[in-house]
Amino acid sequence: MGFKIAVVGATGNVGREILDILAERAFPVSEVVALASRRSMGQEVSFGDKTLKTKDLANYDFSDTDICLMSAGGDVAREWAPKIAAAGTVVIDNSSAWRYDLDVPLIVPEVNADAIKGFSKKNIIANPNCSTAQLVVALKPLHDAAKIKRVVVSTYQSVSGAGKEAMDELFSQTRSIFTTGEAKAGKFTKRIAFNVIPHIDVFMEDGYTKEEWKMMAETKKILDPSIKLTATAVRVPVFLSHSESVNVEFENPITPEQARDILRQAPGCLVIDKREDGGYITPHEAAGEDATYISRIREDATVENGLAFWVVSDNLRKGAALNAVQIAEALVNRKLISPRQQAA
């Protein structure tokens, strides 16, 4: 017997992607329910070859639901995740609302799947920030091999990370520039078309943005609290997939050749690294794919035991929807939950 799954935020970019991935990966479902706010009630979304009509989250009874995959923003998650969890449903939340709670595991299955058992404290599991997810997938096998001391990362993040309105803004600005020569900023603080913006999320007192802070805090929680990390998060005029330029200082020696071999064998990683024209992955090629791609692996001679490399991944998939579904799969495969309808 399958599991009853609720998808909160089903009409958004990530919610739709979750529904697609559940179908693609043949997740063992008995029923899938699409939930959204009242204003989106009745809107149709696809699940495999089925069409689902969204229901109102506020009026939904979770008493027989096994897993809730939530992607509706921090405010909704803070209000509803505890209520849903109290009904006996395991909540897997994509927002930042629960990531830093010590009683809520922050999970990337390829990296720290064993920590998932801690979900029982609050019945909530957190999904990391999209830029963190792909980073730690690449860092974990290298950390196991040579122990990471310090990471310097610059991100090149697509507009889809800021939602559908941001994607629409890039499209409309690009069109406007070619027709009228003007581009009005709305979702972003400055023009995004044919430009880059070194600003994602709000500024903090130390000069870092919240997005950069998330990468620091989440990497420590997921991978190792002793790792030092500094980040610069940049929005770029790309619709899908995030890229990262990463410099790592290790405690122990590791060569580019060793790193390449280690990453080729690591779960979730795909190494495309030819030192020739086109011998690397770009955001366009990663879109729609599940892997975290690593290219341009080379020595960083500015530090002892240093490596530099390039990481690209589809932010809506591994950075959000796929990771959430993988967490649900880990719950099932490790027999940490059973279908409630069967138990009844």
Poorly predicted segments = none
- Give the SSE string: EHEEEEEHEHEHEHHEEHEHEEHH
What's the β-strand tally?
A: 14
Q: How would you sum up the major sheet?
A: 6 strands, parallel
From the 3D coordinates, which CATH architecture of the largest domain would you assign?
3-Layer(aba) Sandwich
- Cα Rg: 20 Å
Q: In one word, what is the shape?
A: globular
This entry's quaternary arrangement is single chain
What structural class do you assign from the helix and strand content? alpha/beta
Helix content: 25-40%
How many domains make up the 3D coordinates? 2
Q: Approximately how much beta-strand content do the residues carry?
A: 15-25%
Within the CATH hierarchy, at the fold level, what is the topology of the largest domain? Rossmann fold
**Individual helix count:** 10
- CATH C-level of the largest domain: Alpha Beta
Summed up, what is this model?
The protein has 344 residues and is α/β, with parallel strands linked by helices. 32% of the residues lie in helices and 24% in strands. 45% of the residues are buried.
